[in-house]
């Protein structure tokens, strides 16, 4: 890819190869995390960074419980992820139920897909949760700042940020 091609990374060379593929063990991990998030005492501890999204399939009507890492940002919650099939079921204006260490809450999801929004919001997520940043292929420079070339690469490879706004 040439430096002046439209797909060139304007922030330079990434330090990672991009977001990690979930792998075969992800299903088992998700079941364990979903169970931990349902346990009353433990869910408050685990739920400080993890939540369960209760997503309903647009076509099938089937309910899916998806454990995700989130970052609290003001009144909103931010979730950085690759564009997974379940993300297509999120529609702005259709409330989404999530559980994070307590009672279910309602949020209005906004899926950010534009490069500028994804870069800005993923930087907030990466600063808050380095483990999540690593899963999403985002490294850090010597000063501890998220690498913009890595974030841009994550976006190029289908990374999105879901912003959850509380429903009042």
TrEMBL record:
<feature type="region of interest" description="Disordered">
    <location>
        <begin position="1"/>
        <end position="27"/>
    </location>
</feature>
<dbReference type="InterPro" id="IPR012349">
    <property type="entry name" value="Split_barrel_FMN-bd"/>
</dbReference>
<feature type="compositionally biased region" description="Polar residues">
    <location>
        <begin position="1"/>
        <end position="18"/>
    </location>
</feature>
<protein>
    <recommendedName>
        <fullName>Deazaflavin-dependent oxidoreductase (Nitroreductase family)</fullName>
    </recommendedName>
</protein>
